[in-house]
Amino acid sequence: MADRKSDFALPTLDDLFSTQEERDDARLEKIRDIPIDLIDDFPDHPFHVRDDEDMVQFVESIKTNGVLTPAVLRQKEDGRYELVAGHRRKRACELAGLTTLRSEIKDLTHDEAVVYMVESNFQRTTILPSEKAFAYKMRLEAMSRQGKRTDLTSNPVGGKLMGKETAQIVGEQSGDSSTQVRRYIRLTFLVPELLEFVDEGRIKMRPAVELSYLDEDSQRDVVEQIDINDCTPSHDQTIRMRKMFDSGKLTAEAVEAIMSEEKPNQRERIVLRGDRVRSLIPKNVQLKDTEDYVCRALEHYAKYLRHRSERDSR
Predict the structure, then answer these.
(1) Which of 16, 173, 195, 233 could anchor a disulfide with 190, C-beta 3.0 to 4.6 Å?
(2) In 3-state terms, what secondary structure has residue 138?
(3) Angle CA(262)–CA(266)–CA(268) in degrees, nearest 5?
């Protein structure tokens, strides 16, 4: 019978008979200053690198102390390097005027690199829902391709998932339930505008999940109605829209009717049809400036009516 590959990685002789100091020295041999222009960002990296106040402080720290924790790279077949962990460190070095990045080179497959990248970024204090969504999706896909192993980063002698569902394992390791993991992954099916509303907190998770089951055209109808009504759909409204979509009855008019409903917590508002208003506005006025343009036009018209009234009363 053919030998069955063990689920456990036995320690090598070097591991058994070397000291911790020797192992640390061996690791240091893999840490080098790599030219930044030879480092490519991780493909479809789901986490944003922001040039905010924290980045300004990080740049000053690197100018003073250098990169204290090496970035993690893996070497590509063309001789260049792929950045697995350390995108903020790379950006800070660029802003600090440095040409190299202190890095540790790890021998990782692409799928192993995906899991490592996601786990290292989940240590951030603030993660947007969209970042979490695409990170979960990438990690589950990678784990599925490699036989659903969990021993890639945290447990070098670990085994298989022992029958557990992949989403359950990811949830246990990140603090979310398997149901919540699936909800986050559903967010990756939203059009960018709706996903941005989720990141901003304007649309909550459960309504967003319901909207993710609509096709792109229907989702964009929802976006248009959000702009017109200046409000986002409730969970109940999204459930009804999804049911109508599943039965083939969700038209643009149906979305408009649902979104125009006044919710109990809404104050009275004036609703203007977007197509009618837009036809009266110059094309060089952007959508985000529409409200300001309309208000200025109304102010101008009010002045006109007031002057005409004063003239007629003379």
Answers:
(1) 195
(2) helix
(3) 75
